[in-house]
Hints:
Strands 1-2 form a two-stranded antiparallel sheet. The protein has a two-stranded antiparallel ribbon with strand order 3-4. It has helices at residues 37-40, 47-58, 67-73, 78-90, 138-145, 157-172, 177-185, 196-206, 249-257, and strands spanning 13-15, 23-25, 94-100, 106-112, 230-232, 239-241. Helix 5 packs across helix 6 (157-172) and helix 6 packs parallel to helix 8 (196-206). It is globular, with a radius of gyration of 24 Å. By secondary structure, it is α+β, with helices and mostly antiparallel strands.
Amino acid sequence: MTAQQPSVPKSGKARQSxxxxxxxxxxxxxxxxxxxxxxxxxxxxxxxxxxxxxxxxSLPAGSxxxxxxxxxxxxxxxxxxxxxxxxxxxxxYLTRARERLQSxxxxxxxxxxxxxxxxxxSPAEPPAPPKAPAPKTPAATLLTRxxxxxxxxxLSERDVRRLVPEVSVWLERGVPATVVERALTTGLPQDPIKxxxxxxxxxxxxxxxxxxPLPATPLPSRPALRPDSWQTCDGCERAFRADGPGxxxxxxxxxxxx
Length: 258
């Protein structure tokens, strides 16, 4: 009597392949979520962000998905979860809007999109031309990283491209990247920064060090100042840098106006 081959379940159909993964697919009739490959195979999102997006899309409407709530479910911690949420915001899979309740308390309303908003277009509108890739230079990386020091310094791709030459001048004059970052992020004004690109361009121009020959023997450099640790805002649950727990700059400004 011929022995049966147990390698493939009877209830599923396996897609044969000579190498790599073998899929055994079974139809779902209940308790499932439809997720697009544009998310699951996104070339720029981290695995942490992709997994978090799938988890959020699987939750019933009205479920709490604050940073602290998610950190209580998963082992990644508040900092990594906050970073993943920012990734999803940047790529159009998530929006978070602050709203003031009648009690005066500020809350965050989160909207999850199963298709990124950046790809949505009206049928009457022509398809948008493909975006050119962001510049992959040390200057572009420095400018993009400024938002981790203060969310008001968030720059668009166009702003980054415009400011890359000005940052490159600093680097070409031998100024370390950490010193450039410190020059752009130290002593920021308390008032809102409406035009971060113009603000940074002003600092890059006015604070530009003179072009002098570097000494033959490099001088000992001062230790780089470590940024404050990440904290979770008690008001909107966003991650921000500070020397202790409390509220982020935006929530403090809203409270002051109230």
